[in-house]
Amino acid sequence: MRKRTWAAHCAASLLLVLSYAALPTNAAAAYPDRTITLIVPFAPGGPTDIIARILADSMSRSLKQAVIVENRPGAAGNIGMGQAARADPDGYTLLLASTAIAVNPALYKKLPYDPFKDFVPISELVDSPNVLVVKPDAGINTVADLVAHAKAAPGTFNYSSPGIGTKSNLTGEELKQRAGIEMTHIPFRGAGPSAVAVLDGTVQVGSVALPAAEGMIKSGQLKALAVTGPERWSDLPDVPTMIEAGFPNFVSVTFSALFAPAGTPSDIVELLAKACRDAFATKEAHEQAHRIGFTVVAGTPKELGDRVAAEVPAVKALVARAGLKPQ
Prior knowledge:
44% helix, alpha/beta, 2 domains
């Protein structure tokens, strides 16, 4: 009798252990069962924030759970990215970052995050080219004209950008290096003021994000010399790419992408990646993104991981060649 009782007790204990072992799988299958927070490391109203809200709205419907955008701006995005890096890797805190996640390692000696160790890539959502602009009456109609004018008057050309370390700034520095010209960088607080600086003659050239300058280009207030995407921008079909302007492989775009804290379960990552693809597969999402100067990418986790892996060392090399000192 005692042996039968002991055997029954062992069997019951084994069933209990097995049932507990199954809990993580069941819990993961139930994801998400509460609100998801989407950290945007920039102020409300900017391009990254707008993309985040397009995504949050769609994901709330597809995942049948609330997705809220939480803006945590400061220090060129480092504050928000650091907070996201320290979040629990359970899929309930995500990061929607710009190219800053790959650029800032070259610009700051100390960061509150490591782009490789602290995050797992989910999807590159959209990207946007920069554009080189001048005043229409500057006598500069092509990038070749700009290079010729700058070489003829060394030390007298200035160019504007939305700030030190932005993709627009790095575009200007890459042009200087590849064309062998001198231009002094004049940083402004944002792409809008950077474009206006060209308009009012404060600088001769602007290297700015496309959305800030597109309206002034279409109205004839600014002359676009080239865009820095791999292809021409559809709404500016007469503006060549930098590649067409004679600079092979000159592509410099700003992306917005979704990341999760490192350690987030792979099945959750795949579910979120699918939600991203679905969010930007609609005509409405394409139109919303295009209106603010973005092209939809909606790529895979591997594609985003490869992008960051290539971007970080490339930016570090460019920053070193440009002589920019990390802060």
